């Protein structure tokens, strides 16, 4: 916050923080170590929620039954790049790509799982909890499934790591996701660049100093606006980072699109 370490400070090495400055940050955390510049960012910037709809994903209630690694099921029963719910039903497919968060990884990757969404997830949407009082699964997010989105793992001990996912996915409670709002003037690539920067990790620790970073926390990230030239440069670099990380991810046998080891390529 506002640190007073000038020659006029009567007590050396004593730092003062204004309580009014804490109120400029969502949740008013006692983040006394913030610089004046970062405090001003919170005060003057729009929140991420203005540009993205942030959601916590599906809880199946029984992952052992409904969630598998993609290589554990028949490829003929999997549908990738599915555009919408009607198409999923008409395809007759049982398994669909499923974002479950995963390890610390920026830009792209962590694409390991599929979920049973046969006939629009009929079984998941109708199976009662063993106590028989409610549907076992919840947070279906039916208006958002199969849309492209950016996602982060809820455990942020190593910092915030945001990745891009194309259309065709459902998403889990640990694969928290953000969907671009209609008429938003902020792209997924700029948002990822901001979140994957050192500033993004710093803001993460301010908004939620625990191990977990939820959708409500992500919604409060301040968006730093830049001029058009800088914006284009950031977008270009972010797209290149996604491309390179995708290549890296596909160089392992655990990837859907693995073809051969990089060391065996000429």
Task: Describe the 3D structure.
With 266 residues, the chain is α+β, with helices and mostly antiparallel strands. It contains nine helices and ten strands. The protein has helices spanning 19-22, 36-44, 63-66, 85-91, 118-126, 188-195, 198-207, 215-219, 228-250, and strands spanning 46-47, 52-55, 67-69, 95-99, 113-116, 149-153, 162-165, 170-171, 175-180, 222-223. 30% of the residues are buried.
The CATH class is: Alpha Beta
The number of domains? 1
Largest sheet: 4 strands, antiparallel
Shape: globular
Q: What pattern of helices and strands is seen along the backbone?
A: HHEEHEHEEHEEEEHHHEH
The total strand number stands at: 10
Strand order of the largest sheet: 2-9-6-7
Give the number of helices: 9
Class per helix and strand makeup: alpha+beta
Strand content: 5-15%
Instruction: State the distance separating the first and last CA atoms.
Output: 54 Å
Q: Average pLDDT value?
A: 87
Task: Determine Rg (CA atoms, Å).
Answer: 21 Å
What's the CATH topology name?
A: Adenine-n6-DNA-methyltransferase TaqI, Chain A, domain 2
DSSP helix fraction: 25-40%
Low-confidence stretches: 1-7
CATH architecture: Alpha-Beta Complex
């Amino acid at each position: 916050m506002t640190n007073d370490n000038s020659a006029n400070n009567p007590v050396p090495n004593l730092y003062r923080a204004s309580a009014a400055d804490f109120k400029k940050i969502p949740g008013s955390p006692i983040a006394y170590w913030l610089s004046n510049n970062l405090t001003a960012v919170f005060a003057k910037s729009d929140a991420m929620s203005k540009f993205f709809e942030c959601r916590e994903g599906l809880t199946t209630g029984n992952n052992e039954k409904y969630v598998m690694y993609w290589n554990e099921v028949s490829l003929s029963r999997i549908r990738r790049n599915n555009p919408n719910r009607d198409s999923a039903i008409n395809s007759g497919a049982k398994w669909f790509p499923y974002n479950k968060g995963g390890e610390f990884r920026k830009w792209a990757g962590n694409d390991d799982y599929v979920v049973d969404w046969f006939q629009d997830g009929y079984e998941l949407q109708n199976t009662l909890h063993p106590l028989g009082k409610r549907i076992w699964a919840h947070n279906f997010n039916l208006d958002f499934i199969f849309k492209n989105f950016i996602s982060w793992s809820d455990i942020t001990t190593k910092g915030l790591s945001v990745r891009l996912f194309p259309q065709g996915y459902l998403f889990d409670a640990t694969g928290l996701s953000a969907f671009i709002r209609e008429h938003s003037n902020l792209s997924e690539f700029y948002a990822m660049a901001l979140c994957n920067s050192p500033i993004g990790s710093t803001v993460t620790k301010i908004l939620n100093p625990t191990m977990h970073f939820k959708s409500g926390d992500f919604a409060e990230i301040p968006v730093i606006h830049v001029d058009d030239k800088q914006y284009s440069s950031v977008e270009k670099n972010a797209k290149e980072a996604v491309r390179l990380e995708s290549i890296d991810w596909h160089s392992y046998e655990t990837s859907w699109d693995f073809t051969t080891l990089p060391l065996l390529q000429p």
